[in-house]
Design brief:
- This protein is mostly helical.
- About 0% of the residues are buried.
Amino acid sequence: MASHAMAFAILFPRPYVLEVSKLRQQLEEAHLAWATEWRLRQQEFVIENIRFAHDPHWKQRFFSLQSARDGAHWFWQATRVIVTCTGASI
């Protein structure tokens, strides 16, 4: 009979309800402490709204990547022609 009880204990172990609930309680307490600390630190952080003046000619500026891509400046137009001719000769 003892072997049958031991076999059933191995196949169907008792649930660890007390240990899981203690662990869950500790986890919830740790999360609550972290969330409280996080909220306190967030109040110190202030986002500044930084606004830049809009430059309507930003595409035509010499060192603008958009100007180099569009060829809006004579230098970039000449560079594109030279690169195209050099690439074609190779």
